Give the backbone structure.
Amino acid sequence: MHISSSIRKLNYLFVILFIALSGGLVYWQVIQSDNVTSTIHNPRRCLADNTPQRGRIFDRNGVLLAESVPDQNVCGGYIRKYTESSLANIIGYYVPGYYTPGIEGQYNDVLNGANGRTALGNEINKVLHQALVGNDIYLTIDVRIQRLAVQEFNDYHPETDPFYFQIYSKNLNAPSNRGSVVISDPQTGEMLAMVSSPGYDPNRMVQTLTHNDLSYYNQMNQDPTHPLLNRPLQETYVPGSIFKTVTLMAALDAGTTTLDHPWDKKGAMGPLVYDGRQIFGDNLGYGEFVFHFPISTEFAYANSDNIVFAQIGVSLGLNSWLDYAKKMYLGQTIPFDLPVAKSSVENSDGTPLSTLQLASNAYGQGVDSVTPLQMSLIDNTVANNGVMMRPMLLSKVTDNNNNLLQTYTPQQLNTVISKDAAFQVRKALSAVTTCGSGWHLGQNFGYQSSIAGKTGTAQLGGTQVAHGWMITQAPFTLQTTDEDQMPNLSIVAMRENGGEGAYAVGPAIWKMYNDIFAKGYVKAQLPTPLTSDPYCLNTGLWQTR
């Protein structure tokens, strides 16, 4: 009896020890496995079976953009490789142990297999010391359009290009390789290209950081042109006259103006004084291009008259103007697949806008500060009959066998203005490029009537050269009366300190549209070209003595 009791106690002891051992194995091999594997004191951390087979990244057409390739000289036996360096601002780079920007960082758990249908399988892989398997990401980006955008944006030589020596463009622009391009589908919100210039080489970044060499990173981080900055998403700028579009959208929708509203000479040219300060900039060229009054709101928009738009903004009223700004996500967090800096139209200290500030904001100076992505959303809202779509960068996620795990579909963010108001704004945009400040672009680079857009030259004060902007959409023509004719492509571009907006980025934009449509990268029914002369004379958008 005494022996049986001792055997029973010994059995209990073995059971307890077995449970403790099993618990320890589960704790260290499952719960703490990631920490054990990653610690620098663990010599097994760099073995292939402890390194995830990181997922790939593709463009919308299945073109490979990022993958992990074998390299026996690095920890884990794999190194990340990128096929399109101009997408570094979107994709980022991946090196274990270092900060990971872009899609690589934002969707790290998807790419390394921690999330998604493969997550449970990867937990089993950890226990069995088999390599983890990541998921693949497909972007909405079309790498063909991305390469076109990079090529045309960089083909800018105001010192030598004959275009910049014509009477209307001479001495209006300055050399600059800094800026952004955002190309998208207004009806879905899909980003087709996104250029941040200058950029950096993600492959060189990976190759150096992998060996703990910070020389290239430090070089890029200390470069005064800030190549590591994601300009379309993270930098805000004074918008200049492209912001007249915001005011026009609000005023047409609220009914405080119409395109044919008349403005007499004083109303169009001033002087205009708010809070004891005079506003300048009628931009009409009285006696050279304008000889009689009244002019219309459409004429004022086409020729970028600050005086008229200051009054339109003030007439709309501060609360109404801010309400429309909020509906356009100005000052709001934009839902996107990567972080976006907030644009702003209000004082940073929280004090209400003065009448002078509202008037200045209304034509794009004042305290307005916007990202290029923000202006793309506003441009797209006009093209999409007043409905703002959520911007999209991810298309779908699959496992490594191409089995679909998740799809991303277009989503509406807000109905900003009515369908009729949006159509009227499109007409005004087309008046700019057919008869106004952008008409020389069609004259020189084609598709004269099918590209609608607004130019902007954002004044920075002092001796600083202005930022040059354009927001555009196509195809659209002044000949249409069909409100359902919505442009299916938009391009927003800006060049830092480039000078006159029409010429700082206009030629590049026109060439982008020409190539994209001609090569069939975006399918579109292009309208019959509309000749500025005699159309602009017949409609009163040009004047003669």
